[in-house]
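Appendix B, example 12.
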Amino acid sequence: MARNLRALAAIASLCLPISLAVAQPVSQQCVNSEVAKKEVLELDSMRIDALLRNDVEFLEEITADDYSHVESSGGARNKSQFIAGRRGERALFSTFVIDENKATIYCNVVVGRYHNAHRTSGGSSVVKRARHLRVYVHENGQWRNVAHQATEIGRAD
C-alpha cells in the first residue's frame, strides 16, 4: 500500500512539468519533427554518456531548473537533488545501455527501455532493466531535460 502511494505521488509530481512542457509554444525546432527527433535523441545519448562518465557539469547544463526525476524504485528528486546525487557519486554506473528509444511527434518526449549495472558498496555489480520517459523542452535555442521517469521491468516482462 505504501509503495503504491509513493508511486502515485511520484507520478503526480510529473504532471505539472509535463503539462508545462506540452503547453509550450511550438518552437522552430518542432517545425521539422524529424530534425527535432534527431536532436533530442542525440542529446539523450549524450546524457547517458555523461551519466557513465559522471559529467556533472554537462548534466547540470542540459537539465532544466524545474526538472522532475522519478526513479525506477519510485523515489522522486528535483534538479538540485539529482545533481547533488551525481556530485556525491551515488550509484556510479558501470554500464547504461538504452535498449529502445524513440522521440514522439510531440517533439519533446523520449520513451524507451534501458538496462544498467552499478557497483554496490560491497563491490558487486547489480543489473537493472527499466522503461523510461523523458521530456525535453526547446528554450533559448537549446534543448533542456525537464522530466525523467523510470519503471523497473519485472522478470516476466
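DSSP finds four helices and six strands in the chain. Helices lie at 2-23, 33-53, 56-62, 79-87.
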